[in-house]
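Researcher: I need the complex structure. Ligand is adenosine-5'-triphosphate. Inputs:
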Amino acid sequence: MIEAHGLTKVFRDRKRGEIRAVDRVSFRAQPGQIYGLLGANGAGKTTTLRMLATILQPTEGTARVAGYDVVEEPEQVRQHVGFLSTATALYGRLTAEEMVAYFGRLHGMEEATLRARIEELFATLEIHPFRDRRCDKLSTGMKQKVSIARTLVHDPPVMIFDEPTVGLDVMTARTIVGFIRDCRARGKTVIFSTHVMSEAEKLCDIIGIIHNGTLRAEGTLAELQQRYKETDLEEIFLRVVEQPA
Ligand SMILES: Nc1ncnc2c1ncn2[C@@H]1O[C@H](COP(=O)(O)OP(=O)(O)OP(=O)(O)O)[C@@H](O)[C@H]1O
Ligand SMILES: [Mg+2]
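Model: Output:
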């Protein structure tokens, strides 16, 4: 459902010269699975996810998402993914509900389907208490919930989340983590990025550790624990990123 082959992104920056933000990254995530990209700041997580979501063109390599090629068939990819970026914006003058409905209509959803979907999303994400509040009056956590609802209103088979719980309190983070688990149970292919070890431990079926643009290790938590003879993911992570590339 997500297959990346040698994904590479080179940025050309006037000051810094050539930056290999993502360098020959290959992996696969299946339906009913949560794939976690774990990496430090600047590791290349966002750049990888943006290529999968067709926001950025790969410099080299390719990826297929929901069966469509990100370079050849970007429109099809966009119809089949929901991408939650850390810069997902809401229109301040719309209410939470208007915002989500607006995006549903952009996706061409029928009114009855859209209504049912909004009720379902608002219940699982606990948006009901502020559904009629304007987006510019929402707290960070409330905004994040509405952003997730608007990203996934069309119920895409593939979900891409860039640091979905960053800056959220434990309760709000828990709601979102629970929601991501529900998505897996419903057979969605989920990929998300994080630098929070506990989140990767709890949530991911497969963990990919990315560092300086390259995928340094990959496996289930149990596989990584066995390979590195450590139980603590933080220790494993440090071992992986400190070893020479
Ligand atoms: N548009 C851009 N132009 C130039 N360099 C960029 C651009 N976007 C990202 N980079 C560089 O690419 C590298 C990877 O950045 P990226 O945002 O993918 O990291 P990240 O893993 O998401 O980090 P964080 O955890 O801080 O969000 C960094 O060196 C960054 O400065
Ligand atoms: Mg990032």
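Model: Summary of the prediction. The radius of gyration is 18 Å.
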